[in-house]
Amino acid sequence: MRLKLQDLTRQFGKKTAVDAVTVDIAPGQMVGVIGRSGAGKSTLLRMINRLADPTSGSIHFGDVEVSSLRGSALRHWRRDCAMIFQQFNLVPRLDVMTNVLLGRLDHRSTLASILNLFTREERLLAIAALERLGIEQTALQPAGTLSGGQQQRVAIARALMQRPKMLLADEPIASLDPLNAKIVMDSLRDINRNEGITVLTNLHTLDTARTYCERIIGMSQGRVVFDGTPDELTADAVHQIYGVGDASTFDEGMTSTSITVPQPTAEHTGIHPSSGVRSLATV
Ligand SMILES: Nc1ncnc2c1ncn2[C@@H]1O[C@H](COP(=O)(O)OP(=O)(O)OP(=O)(O)O)[C@@H](O)[C@H]1O
Ligand SMILES: [Mg+2]
């Protein structure tokens, strides 16, 4: 089923965070959304998942009008489009296995949930999801004791437990070092290719979007200013998206944390102090 956003707009007071965005995403695409800080990337994703409501415009998934869903239909939609976040959003004191099983909550009766009765089938599914992400050995550890990269993989396993039709990711690697960033992006690509699940991910580094996404959407001040393949993303287009400097001198490296060449200083922060879009965008 296609995801269609039509003139999607969100205002916060006088600020237009997302401005008349019209986008049509075919099933199974891997799409990266890029843009400087404040461009509206998170707000766009949050509206699709209905964590934020549009001010105007519409969201359709197949024949369903997502923007008007309420009650159980809205819960089903949230299950269908699983979301992962920069800060993982796990329950740190609960073990990994339980965190992954929490992805099943919406599939279950309230009573079974209250009694914490996960079925044998659900447990097997959880183990399979952890194996899929290569972290089954951590199943009994409290989630908070894992490395950032491992925690993000737990979050992806939890998302898979929802049997989603779409995976939304809001800067999934922004808190990770280059090696873990690569593992997480490889996992998302693997899920996209093997399960055919649409992946829509905000990314703050251009090189990651180029490497992993077949389609890149560039946002600036709430608007889509680029929508095309990595090949079509020319220096001029990059300049339009990030809106700084001169197109001829714009250094793409400024938006890069390169996940192929680990830098020692990036080991713990995941973002080299002088090279992230964050620092670029705050100048
Ligand atoms: N809850 C809110 N209340 C008021 N303004 C908001 C709210 N959420 C977002 N905004 C504003 O909307 C604009 C877009 O914010 P958004 O978080 O979507 O940008 P972003 O592209 O995700 O940025 P970043 O790269 O920093 O995550 C910003 O100007 C932000 O200040
Ligand atoms: Mg954001």
TrEMBL record:
Q: Which GO terms describe its molecular function?
A: ATP binding
**Swiss-Prot/TrEMBL keywords:** ATP-binding, Cell membrane, Membrane, Nucleotide-binding, Translocase, Transport
Question: For the ABC transporter domain, which residue ranges apply?
Answer: 3-246
Q: Which residue spans adopt a coiled-coil conformation according to this UniProt entry?
A: none
| Domain of life according to the entry | Bacteria
SUPFAM superfamilies, sorted:
P-loop containing nucleoside triphosphate hydrolases
Write out the ranges of the annotated region (Disordered).
261-283
Which NCBIfam families does the UniProt record give? ABC_phnC
Q: Which PANTHER family match?
A: AMINO ACID IMPORT ATP-BINDING PROTEIN, PHOSPHONATES IMPORT ATP-BINDING PROTEIN PHNC
* Similarity-based family: Belongs to the ABC transporter superfamily.
Name listed for the protein in its UniProt record: Phosphonate ABC transporter ATP-binding protein
Q: Please tell me the species this chain comes from.
A: Rhizobium oryzicola
